């Protein structure tokens, strides 16, 4: 995931800016940068706040108005036997909600501090996973659903990352992607940072996935469901 600095959905270097490292930290920028920009707490920037400050942004109650977490979770149709991986889980904004419906939840991130927050008062079926920027580090054939919310556009070399996701999925598994529309919006990053629906669909098609469903229930984001070919 791209990060203009030590940010991360899954970043561990927040506060220690290393220009050489930013090109490898691309799997982590989204939760931070997008949440900060989208929630309007601070301007888009290269030097993000601390993990604690970022956690407050992710968990700001005002986010619910446009992120519509209940509708997002219900649309997944989770079953008690399902395992779901939330890539870039951050503080567990979605992962905690998934745990009320799924049998197993993997909250995946590369930021140790955010994962520590996600673990606090977490239900027994929620497991945190410290990932690498280029590897979600999920067990093979372990999950029914892999979920991304405002994260995929920050993954560097997605063509190499998708096969690792495929290995983690069960044979009937699916990938779910929520991303900001690639246009000017009152929240979110600039259009140049975004992925269009067409780009995501084409990339995942090349990786062996077919668009199964598209929802238009969110005001600023598209919501796509992909099945294996």
Describe this structure in words.
The chain is α/β, with parallel strands linked by helices and 229 residues long. The protein has a single domain, classed as Vaccinia Virus protein VP39 (Rossmann fold), CATH 3.40.50. 28% of the residues lie in helices and 22% in strands. It is built from 8 helices and 7 strands. A 7-stranded mixed sheet has the order 3-2-1-4-5-7-6, sandwiched between helices. The longest helix has 11 residues. The chain is globular and about 40 Å long. The N terminus is likely disordered.
Features:
7 strands; 28% helix; disordered N terminus; seven-stranded mixed sheet; alpha/beta; Rossmann fold; globular; 229 residues; 22% strand
In short:
This protein has 8 helices and 7 strands. The chain is α/β, with parallel strands linked by helices and 229 residues long.
């Amino acid at each position: 995931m791209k990060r203009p600095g030590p940010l991360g959905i899954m970043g561990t270097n927040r506060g220690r800016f290393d220009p050489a490292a930013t090109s490898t930290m691309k799997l982590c920028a989204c939760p931070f940068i997008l949440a900060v920009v989208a929630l309007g707490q601070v301007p888009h920037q290269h030097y993000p706040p601390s993990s604690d400050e970022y956690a407050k942004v992710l968990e700001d109650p005002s986010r619910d108005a446009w992120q519509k977490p209940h509708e997002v979770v219900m649309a997944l149709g989770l079953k008690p036997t399902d395992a779901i991986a939330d890539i870039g889980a951050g503080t567990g904004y979605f992962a905690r909600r998934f745990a009320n419906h799924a049998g197993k939840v993997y909250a995946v991130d590369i930021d140790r501090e955010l994962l520590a927050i996600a673990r606090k008062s977490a239900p027994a079926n929620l497991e945190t996973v410290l990932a690498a920027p280029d590897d979600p580090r999920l067990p093979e054939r372990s999950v029914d659903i892999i979920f991304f919310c405002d994260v995929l556009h920050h993954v560097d070399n997605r063509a190499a990352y998708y096969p690792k996701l495929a290995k983690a999925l069960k044979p009937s598994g699916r990938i779910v992607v929520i991303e900001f529309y690639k246009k000017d919006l009152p929240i979110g990053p600039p259009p140049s940072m975004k992925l269009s629906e067409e780009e995501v669909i084409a990339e995942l098609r090349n990786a062996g996935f077919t668009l199964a469903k598209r929802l238009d229930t969110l005001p600023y984001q598209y919501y796509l469901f992909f099945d294996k070919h």
